[in-house]
Design goal:
Number of strands: 11
CATH topology: Protocatechuate 3,4-Dioxygenase, subunit A
CATH superfamily: Aromatic compound dioxygenase
Strand content: 15-25%
CATH architecture: Sandwich
Distance between the termini: 21 Å
Number of helices: 5
């Protein structure tokens, strides 16, 4: 694959890390000892392309009922049981480390959020998406598409089986790599009520270097994006397990991406 050298980013990781540290310091000073913001600023400088995409004017408000007239609909009959297992969607076994992800979707008071459509998408074990814009030279897996769906049960619970994704490069700066992550999309009672977030894996050495993860200034809020290894979920001779709960509202809420993000 030929890449025009003029198109490659020239900023180093050290320069980006310095920008991250400066913004964190400004946010702490602005908080004056009070709580840090849970959600990141839209203009987080180290996330370079965000400056080109975040809104500079008031958002246009739409009538949700009018939008729903032309939006798709979903129900229990539309989500098959096998969609929650990303390892059985093709004739062969996908390559990589099989994992189980379990958790609950909760409101700010700890109550279960039932019957919610939850979608995931992710890179394969080599760190590549099945998408025409993903052209970095990592192999595609013919037995892994990287998308799944599930509806939360009466306890707000969900259960997914998948392959642990790999890290992958992105062009925010020179030698930039995204930590391994899974994208989660949650719908409320309508398709206009959509929230998107990312789940990370514990102990990833790329956390400190990633502008998207570091755009969340509050360390406790960042940690809520990291799943916990749970030995009770792991199944002998088959897969290891992680637990990750999603809290939709309140001071302990899970970070959600702004609508204009490109979900890198």
């Amino acid at each position: 694959m030929h890449v025009d050298p003029g198109m490659l980013p020239t900023e180093t990781q050290e320069e980006i890390s310095a920008v991250i540290a400066q913004r964190h310091e400004r946010e702490r000073d602005a908080a004056a000892g009070g709580p840090l913001p849970v959600h990141p600023p839209r203009d987080f400088e180290a996330y370079r392309s965000a400056a080109l995409r975040h809104p500079t004017h008031e958002l246009v408000r739409a009538d949700p009922e009018e939008i729903e007239l032309v939006s798709p609909a979903f129900g229990h009959s539309d989500v098959a049981a096998h969609e929650s297992d990303l390892t059985i969607q093709h004739p062969g076994e996908p390559l990589g480390e099989r994992i189980l992800v379990r958790g609950r979707v909760l409101d700010g008071d700890g109550r279960p959020v039932r019957n919610q459509l939850l979608e995931i998408w992710q890179a394969n074990a080599a760190g590549r998406y099945i998408h025409k814009r993903d052209q970095h030279p990592a192999p595609l897996d013919p037995n892994f598409t990287g998308v799944g769906r599930v509806i939360t049960d009466d306890d707000g619970g969900y259960a997914l089986t998948t392959i642990k994704p790999g890290a992958y490069p992105w062009k925010n700066h020179r030698n930039a790599w995204r930590p391994a992550h899974i994208h989660f999309s949650l719908f409320g009672t309508a398709f206009t009520q959509r929230l998107i977030t990312q789940m990370y894996f514990p102990g990833d050495p790329l956390f400190a270097l990633d502008p998207i993860y570091q755009s969340i200034v509050d360390p406790a809020a960042r940690e809520r994006l990291v799943a916990a290894y749970d030995h009770s979920i792991s199944e002998p001779e088959w897969a290891i397990g992680y637990r990750w709960d999603i809290v939709l509202t309140g001071p302990q809420s899970t970070w959600m991406e702004p609508e204009e993000a490109d979900h890198a």
